[in-house]
Amino acid sequence: MTPDPHISWSHGAFLLVEHERMGDGTIIPEAGGRLRQAFRLVRALVRHQKRTFFTAVSGAAVFAACTVLSAVVVRMITDEVIDPRFRQGSVAASKVLIVLGALILLGFVRAAGVVVRRTWAWRTMWRVVDSLSGEVVDQLAQQPVPWHRTQSTGDLITRAGVDAEAATAVLSPLPFASGVVVLVGLSSVLLLVTDLWLGLAAVAVFPVVIIVTLRYQKRVDSFYDAAQNELGRLSAAVHESFDGVSVVKSFGAEGRETERLAVIASRLREARLSAVRLRSTFEALLDGLPTVVNILLLVGGAYRVRSGAMTVGELTSFIYLFTLLVFPLRIIGYALSEVPHSLAGWNRIRSLLDQPVAPDPSLTLARSPDRSVVLNDVHFSHDGEREVLTGVNAHIEGGCTTAVVGATGSGKTTLLHIIAGLMPVGAGSVAVPDGGVRLVFQEPFLLAGSVRENVALGADIGTDAIEAALAVAEASFVHDLPDGLNTEVGERGVGLSGGQRQRLALARALVRQPAVLLLDDTTSSLDPTTEAKVLANLKSVLVRTTVIAVASRPSTIALADDVLFLDEGRVVAHGRHDELLSTVPAYRRLIEAFEHDRAALDAAAATPVGVEP
Q1: pTM greater than 0.90 (yes/no)
Q2: Which CATH code is given to the segment(s) 363-606?
Q3: Packing angle between helix 174-194 and helix 312-353, nearest 10 degrees?
């Protein structure tokens, strides 16, 4: 895939080092720095679900405030309830009820904050995943057929699924992390007010944790980027391998495919293991550093209490609050550690979404004043060098059936794709009538749904119309299926024969009553009798429809009103079949070759297996 100009490449990984396109289309200049990138990433994600995100943040802030207040209440319980009870032997019941009531109330409010934070944090994440996936799908739907032919299907699927989840991974811990920032701020003030020297020792841990986290994030970036890109390659390779399973098995290439997938999987595994090893070291530091500091604070606090610089309640509150901070500090580290993973997924999604929608070839088709199809000096080339079509001029009368005939590689299929608006012309123009153009491919594609779903294809089409289209396509076999129109045909129509799939694909086009019907050797899998019936039906029913059919059977060609003869991308002749036979030697030789090939195929089909013809 060609890198998007909005995304720079560095050390083999996507980095947001130039600018980032937000969902509203604005461009944000890059000011440098990982924290700046993380902020831009979060802002881009949060715009999808602002209300739910800030609800989660509010819950986290309530949790943080209640946590700090609970430390104050613990100090009150120690100094005003427990200590007087041991020293004086009694304490007022009202004071006990007030202090314990305050602690219980704070506990309930704190628990409510946790529920709100967790519930709305997950809602935010999954709704943003859904929104990003929808944007990717919308972008894919807008891109025309030529663009899709240059992409890997598996990689596109990964961007809509795995990459969307990776990009939003940072959102789940983020509300808690934002609450921890509030908690650290309030706690720092309370720790310093309680005891300046111990407070300074405790607060000094915070920047150390942040520095360790940032260094970890910088080192783990490349591993997450590599893993996410390898995951896309693996998905694309697996999709391609399973999509072509019949080719793989028929050529005995299972070992080759297994080895190819194993190589990609090994690179993915190594990238993920490297990230896990680094993360394990990082989390060990996050665990060990606060624990060691907590022990030192307890020892130092004991000396401070003995010297009378602080009370037992203040030390208890101090240690209690610092202990409560240990796990939340890990959440900050966890949130920041998710940034590289999310950036990797986000950059892959943005590299797709930031691509401009390619021009749709169908929009370049002109409208003919009548029902005819007009090609005027049409040129086409796949690679910009060797022309497939060269100066094609043709006027195909409306309501007629025209056979497009030519040797293999003469440009027949390309011509139909251009008329259908699936491929752009390099030069010249194509005019088609109003009313729609429908192309039935030589290799019909059926969805893993019912017969009805495959014919209607999402349109609101009644049963009578479907039955009529099936009748024209000679697809009465549908009534012999177990559930008729509601029979599931399996993935790609695996439960049907090639001829049955072709007839259903033809019915899918006919039910929409197109002005122009394009048949790319559509009846090649039908026996001659059925093919003749289908073509006769088309002539009798589609009296106003222009039919253009690529054909290679002499019997099929003879049924057409006229023939467009192509040779090496040029129109050699255009006229009635019998006229071309008598006036164009190249056409006559081609038809004779078709007849010879057809006779050989019929003889081979009639010969018993194991008997020499």
Answers
A1: no
A2: 3.40.50.300
A3: 150
